[in-house]
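hey
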């Protein structure tokens, strides 16, 4: 009986942490989704312009890879990738930790059931 009393607050804390993490992750995922839509729209417009460009008579284009606008665009995309990676890693760590805590709680629950039976 004492184990159940000690385990109860731990389960409640784990549940509260799960709910808090889901709420925080939902906000991050929403922001990342919006950024993804913006980047995808920009890429779509860019590719459409590249498809239309030959119809205007332009067959070759020179690109200055040292142009500040090109460098800024590359840095922005790189920053988005890093943010996406951070969220993925933090969600992976959280889910691994919760999986371990749940399996520990299940084993304790089986132990309690065995003692009761």
């Amino acid at each position: 009986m004492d184990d159940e009393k000690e385990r109860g607050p731990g389960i409640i804390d784990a549940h509260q942490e799960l709910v808090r993490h889901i709420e925080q992750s939902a906000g991050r995922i929403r922001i990342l989704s919006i950024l993804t839509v913006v980047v995808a729209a920009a890429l779509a417009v860019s590719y459409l312009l590249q498809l239309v460009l030959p119809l205007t008579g332009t067959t070759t284009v020179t690109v200055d890879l040292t142009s500040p606008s090109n460098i800024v665009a590359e840095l922005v995309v790189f920053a988005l990738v890093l943010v996406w990676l951070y969220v993925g890693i933090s969600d992976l760590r959280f889910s691994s930790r919760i999986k371990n805590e749940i399996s520990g709680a299940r084993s304790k629950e089986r132990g309690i059931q065995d003692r009761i039976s």
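The mean pLDDT is 78. Residues 2-116 form one domain.
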